[in-house]
Design brief:
Elements: E1 3-5, E2 12-14, E3 17-19, H1 32-44, E4 49-53, H2 60-68, E5 78-83, E6 85-87, E7 93-96, H3 100-114, E8 119-124, H4 133-146, E9 149-155, H5 159-166, E10 173-177, H6 189-196, E11 199-203, H7 235-255, H8 259-268, E12 274-278, H9 283-290, H10 299-308, H11 321-324, H12 328-333
Parallel strand pairs: 3-4, 3-12, 4-5, 5-8, 8-9, 9-10, 10-11, 11-12
Antiparallel strand pairs: 1-2, 6-7
Organism: Siculibacillus lacustris
Protein name: Aldo/keto reductase
Pfam families: Aldo_ket_red
């Protein structure tokens, strides 16, 4: 497995991370045994970066990871954890809490559920508009000093917030959606990260499976699949987006690769400071994603991909309107 450093001062991690959210019900029911087998397969393949959130299944995801990591050398794995999202027992979103006391309380629960004495990267899942980012980052910095956190990250924030946060404590990475269908960060956020020495951990590289090459117009959603509310999976938007997938499939077939592998390889090729997070929750999907490392894209290939899926080609926002309103990154740069 290739490795990359997160930012100028961050840890060295596998060049691809495993996003674990889908193992806790976001895409409908998941198979616990298969999830754990997938985590083990990822570790065996050299994937060291595991990304989770304390609100993924309201603790379920952290407990799942803890079970999978039994007997695994703690120093061989980097745990990236998001916090702050507030949900009720039915799963409804209630907002975000970035107060210093909430930061430290959330971390205490996370350490207990994961069964570890520290997390490698800790970040608020979203910016709390009621709390200055300096206070939230300052609270995590206290946790760094105490040894409970190794590094500080951010999630879905814009350039101005990045600068304010970095003035308080070094930030190793920004976790944000980035892929062929979501390229808004290229205008301002990515240049700001590079100026400040902040890496990118890119989620949504396959746009939640939409550009993975396996989705069809007739595919249905399982109960609890949050994509039922995604604008990109609705009506004419879906038709338009699947047309883009088919254009990409032509290139994939020419390269002897799958559509997903081409899409992941494109992200890998955008810079050594970018680490894609692949949300595989089954071993076959993980194997397919890992195959992206075998895809060699030439300058001509990149140009062909850009013609097939040009910037701004995706139809529909990446989140429903209400969720878009929570994104500091979108308020700064516009829809991406």
């Amino acid at each position: 497995m290739d490795t990359r450093r997160l930012g100028s001062e961050g840890p060295i991690v596998s060049a691809m991370g495993l996003g674990c959210m889908g193992m806790s019900g976001a895409y409908g029911p998941s198979d616990r045994a298969e999830s754990i087998a997938t985590l083990h397969a990822a570790l065996e393949a050299g994937v060291t970066l595991l990304d989770t959130g304390d609100f993924y299944g309201m603790g379920h995801n952290e407990l799942l990871i803890a079970e999978a990591l039994k007997g695994v050398d703690r120093d061989a794995v980097q745990l990236s954890v998001k916090f702050g999202a507030q949900r009720d027992p039915a799963g409804a979103w209630l907002g975000f809490d970035g107060r210093p006391a909430a930061v430290k309380t959330a971390l205490a629960y996370t350490l207990q559920r994961l069964g570890v004495d520290h997390v490698d990267i800790y970040r608020a899942g979203r910016l709390d508009p009621q709390v200055p980012v300096e206070e939230t980052v300052g609270a995590i910095a206290d946790c760094v000093k105490a040894g409970w956190v190794r590094h500080i990250g951010l999630s879905e924030v814009g350039s101005a917030t990045l600068r304010r946060a970095a003035a308080v404590h070094p930030i190793v990475d920004l976790q944000i959606e980035y892929g062929l269908l979501t390229r808004g960060i290229e205008a301002a956020i990515l240049p700001t990260c590079r100026e400040l020495g902040i890496g990118i951990t890119a989620y949504g590289v396959l746009s939640r499976g939409l550009i993975g090459g396996h989705w069809s117009k007739d595919a249905g959603f399982a109960a609890g699949d949050f994509r039922t509310h995604s604008p990109r999976f609705q009506g004419d938007n879906l038709d338009r987006n699947l047309t883009l997938v088919e254009a990409l499939r032509v290139i994939a077939e020419q390269k002897g690769a799958s559509v997903a592998q081409i899409a992941i390889a494109w992200v890998l090729g955008q810079g050594e400071d970018i680490v894609p997070l692949v949300g595989a929750r089954r071993r076959d999907r993980l194997d397919e994603a890992l195959g992206a490392f075998d895809v060699v894209l030439t300058a001509e290939d990149f140009a062909a991909i850009e013609r097939a899926v040009p910037p701004g080609a995706a139809a529909g926002d990446r989140y429903p309107t209400a969720m878009m309103a929570h994104l500091d990154s979108e308020r700064t740069t516009g829809a991406g």
